[in-house]
What we know:
CATH architecture of the largest domain: 3-Layer(aba) Sandwich
Largest sheet: 9 strands, mixed
Helix content: 10-25%
Strand order of the largest sheet: 3-4-5-2-1-6-7-9-10
Amino acid sequence: MPHSPVYASIVSRPPPVVVLGTNEIASAIAVALCRGGRGVVLSHDPLPPVLRRGMAFHDALWGEEAVLEGVRAVAVDGLIGLIAATATAHTVAITRMGLADLLPLGRFDLLIDARLHKYAVTPDLRPFASSSIGLGPGFSAGLDCDVAIETRPDRFGVLLTRGSTEAPDGSPPPLGGHGGDRFARAADAGVWRTAFPIGARVFRDQIVGRLGRAVVTAPIDGILRGLVRDDTEVPGGAKLIEIDPRNRWQARWSGLDDRGRTVAATVVDAVAALDRRGRDPGRSTPLPFPVRSSR
């Protein structure tokens, strides 16, 4: 009996890449790798809550349409459905299953941590995968991942084959003349409630949502570039709202941004180099990597 087209696609494609995170950086990486013919699994992590949902596949977890540059995300529960979904062209599998839930798949071919925890202790990714990439603060190439990639606004896309990524400086890049003042944060832990959509126009001091019994207002006038999803449990200090103060023709709240594209392009370069290293077992050190400058 002949095998199905899905079975043939599964056995003919490289093993799927597991990307931890469903934010805009993780999603940009998924788009780039999927276009390169790799199956991609995006694994949801509740912390930190995803802010820039219009630039990410995150909302597909709730059954909503999520398409970025022709690549679609499909929410999947269960390992068999996950493997089948990654065999479909131009489709990313997104799941609520965490790293521990995915371990029955066996040792991953490639594991990428794009959760951007910043201040949390980073895990050692290397026992779980043949090759591993750590993104953002807290990773050290050769210690807890094979290579690390900077995501800080002043260095995003810089690739490290040894040494540690830089610590976060707590200063977001300016946008329309505003920096940290364009964000609203959770004063305490609680359940976030909002009826606003991404891309809505708001004005300073306008109520955008509630955290428990406390109202949360727009810090400045502008467009909702980032907004944590309604009915999300958030920790104290989490970003809830991001405002783009530019006019509607300049503001960006959907699609891939420059940082996501640059980091994703660096990941593609790193994956190619790691693949070459894997095909040459006589080498004890990684092959030279093309290093992208921050831009």
